[in-house]
What does this fold into?
Amino acid sequence: MARKYFEETQKFGSQVLYLGMTAIYGTVLSIFGMAFYRQFVQKIPFGNHPISDEGLVLATALIMVILFVSGWLLFSSRFQVEIRDTGISLRFWPYMSKTRIIARSEISSYKIRTYKPFREYGGRGLRKGVKKSGDAYNLHGNIGLQLVLNDGKRILVGTRRPEAMLRAMNKMMELK
It folds into this structure.
């Protein structure tokens, strides 16, 4: 059985994110709630170009589904990294259908480095980059493990525990 040296699970989430999502969701729900109240309780058409009652019900149902799915995707997603004696496994649920395994033998070099998530990769999450920057798996911060594979591909793995990740990489790579 493979020996595990490092494990980290990250989730989206910060007070700024929670406040922003609450403001957006609250605003959208308030507008549709007001439209429902005016059109169905007060029997007054909502807006300058009112939508039919059936259209309002359909639009509200669609918006509720979109808000639920986007909230679920955002708040249930998690990024898991494991470093074992055989290699590194990366899982970003629910965006990746399979765990990505990077075998120890595929890794040419590695280092912990500071990066700029938006400038280098266009944001956070699972990012498919260009050849120069490569792919990135990042949710928080600006420190990550930069891997260079034997074929020249680059992969950046964001972490909140850079020292522990580097120790685990050193242990794994000593076994080569």
User: Anything to note?
Assistant: Residues 15-41 form the longest helix (27 residues). The radius of gyration is 23 Å. The chain has a mean pLDDT of 90. Strands lie at 4-11, 78-84, 87-93, 100-103, 107-114, 125-127, 135-138, 143-149, 154-158.
